[in-house]
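Data availability (excerpt). The following record was deposited with the supplementary files.
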Amino acid sequence: MFAKAFRVKSNTAIKGSDRRKLRADVTAVFPTLGTDQVSELVPGKEELNIVKLYAHRGDAVTVYVSGGNPILFELEKNLYPTDLMLPGLVVPPAGLPQVQKGDLCAIALVGNRRSGDKSSPPSIAPLALDPPDLSEEKGSVQADTTLQGDMRRLTLEGEEEEGEVQQRCGEKSLSEATEDPSVGTLNPDPTDSKTLQEQMDELLQRCFLCALKYRVKKADLPLLTSTLLGSHMFSCCPEGRQLDIKKSSYKKLSKFLQHMQQEQIIQVQELSKGVESIVAVDWKHPRITSFVIPEPSPTSQTIQEGSREQPYHPPDIKSLYCVPASMTLLFQESGHKKGSILEGSEVRTIVINYAKKNDLVDADNKNLVKLDPILCDCILEKGEQHTVMKLPWDSLLNRCLEKLQPAYQVTFPGQEPIVKKGKICPIDITLAQRASNKKVTVVRNLEAYGLDPCSVATILQQRCQASTTVTPAPGTKDILQVQIQGNQIHHLGRLLLEEYRLPRKHIQGLEKAPKPGKKK
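Predicted structure:
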């Protein structure tokens, strides 16, 4: 189902009533789970999101995401748990369980019955069974004919080829993975044995030291702590990884910087009320002088290369013009009809050729064009048809363009041009007021420029250190909007203009960014 790209419709935080209903549904579908297990699966207070998406075949799927990890997905009103999928299938000594077609089944690691994200699998005691000797099997399954027949019937929906299940978003197929010696090794990298929090602590310190050693200069001081994070530390994050302070043991940037100050690496002061800045850095500190950017392990490098997203390139947007019924007489001589799409240069050439062909250029003043009945009907207002006999070239051409209907062409790199009538909607940035007089930044129409709202929301969540949500834009069917807590137009403008290199004329609302010195 997720072997090919899917489309996210919405990503919203779950309501309290929906959380309780989900917990009740899980209890009903999986009656063997105890209360504590259900509470662990559907936590009471931790962040839990509902992601509604469409699979590549059009299936509507609801995914429940906890802490950034999918834990359950719902298809056709049936709940399914997510599982860690690895190549190879081993038959336990007791044989395969008795299952019927349509029963819920899960695939787990040998010696580990837990599920989760792409991080290191958690440790859990294996089932009380004598594990088979896998040293000689190397991923193949040695079973009798009956068991092999049973296994062939346990295929995933929609997959006809035996043993050829592909993982989502460009990950390795089973055939490729079995040839990779790193697959099947639970700890190919020493960091895999560390918890997610410990890994995030290491990443946080790495980005901090990298920023101080390679990016921050003495002339930059005093440096706002928010600028250190947004403009320097995030840029030092290795490709394929995301820096999220909330997932570290420090939870807040201020607490982390206090720890760094205790180590006498930096000195932090509150130069203005509520705003902290770094006022001094000990660049001779052993932790800075000894820091080197670690080389990625071959395994992690392979994973990053396989899952790396293509860099965003802005589309080429060109203004076009559509011939309306009222101007077909002017353009039919050049072979165009109602609905024809033209560029501005083509319109100019057609009008000039029409005037010269019909001897409309004024003999006494070459800068003036005489208006024949067709030109009068096409470009003049009703009150002008008996008073305006001639027009300058520039006025004639401008009036022609104004009378034509607007259209535009969007060309994304490596794709065929897309032509649409009307004007392209700009990326719309607005400020809205929410409960308790809190401001939120709302941005719409990202999809028209090839931007994924969910990806933009994730980037802004990290850089602004603020909560973000993706919801359907009011009054629309297929347009999503990103909402960020606080006035974040400054961060949003930098992302769109400097990193995505979108033209300013296609973005409206940038003037609402907070002025320097004012509270956001």
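Summary of structural features: Residues 202-289 form one domain.
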